[in-house]
Amino acid sequence: MKKLTAICLSAVASIAISAFSANAEDFKIGLSNGWVGSEWRTQMIDEAKAAAEKWKEKGVNIEVVVQSANVDVPGQIAHVRNFISEGVNAIIINPNSPTAFDPVFAQAKEAGILVISTDAEVSSPDATYVGIDQKAWGAAGAKWLAETLGGKGNVVAINGVAGHPANEMRVAGYKEVFGQYPDIKIVNEVNANWDQAQGQQAMQNLLATYPDISGVWVQDGMAAGAWKSIMDAGKTGQTAATGEIRKDFIDIWTKDKLNSGASVNPPGVMASALNVAVLMLQGKELKEPATAGQYKNAMYLPIPFIDSKNLAEAATQLEGKPGYYSYTSQLSIEDAEALFK
């Protein structure tokens, strides 16, 4: 009798496990990162993987497939084709071009694959953008700098990778703002490819040519290098410059009381995109359609800003983190669910 009872209990358990498996949702999501030149991108991927793990608590199993490499646009298009061949349910891409992916995204849609871009917008009508407004990101730093300078002074700009969609939108943002201040003159603009060493060298060259610079608009990834040249030249007290969101820079910012302000593009944008993607895969519908941006396919996330008023708060969030770790935020599962009907 005991043996029979044990067999019956085992059968019931097996049925329960099978029922749970049948009810659990399984999705395969491909993450494409076409540039690995910074720890920000590594953190972006890590946060997206962590977001996928959290879905298990809701009975949703996410298999994440990552293709992360320094590739040109054709190389990243190959990433997408690989994902299509693998039969993923969704592709989340940090794209190297705003327009080149239109044909391959159409192929993904035809295969029933959801496509979401993040960090840089794309023109494809077959993709949705989930991330910050990069033009507004550039404008926020420029507005802080213009107001800090009292609306006048000679300014230089150190930009990222020429032609990259996020870089071009950021440049458009600061130019629009500075254009509203007739007494602010942009004396030079250079590219330093989001590389700290190149940013430092670019700033050193600019200071040698323009010793009367009063303001520097520089993107994250290069601001720490630019500020090092400013400090080495003994111009810390005479210069205002935009800054970084990494812990090592925020530590210097705090210690040396730099006159800085930083727009935040959080590495958590890909995690936010993943949470939105899962809800879309579940067939849920957004309360407000993603129709923002120049391509009318964007869902914009908030852009935090760090300056002297909340610097201590940002430093507290980063306590115990390694120097390369960036101040971050993301849509939690619950935050993302609130955006859907």
UniProtKB/TrEMBL annotation:
Keyword Cytoplasm in annotation: no
Chief localization: other
Periplasmic binding protein domain location: 29-285
Localization, UniProt: Cell envelope
Cleavable signal peptide: 1-24
GO molecular function: carbohydrate binding
Xref: InterPro entries: Peripla_BP_I, SBP_2_dom
Annotated Gene Ontology cellular component terms: cell envelope
Keywords of this entry: Signal
Pfam families, per database record: Peripla_BP_4
Family, per entry: Belongs to the bacterial solute-binding protein 2 family.
Protein name as catalogued: Ribose transport system substrate-binding protein
Source species: Neomesorhizobium albiziae
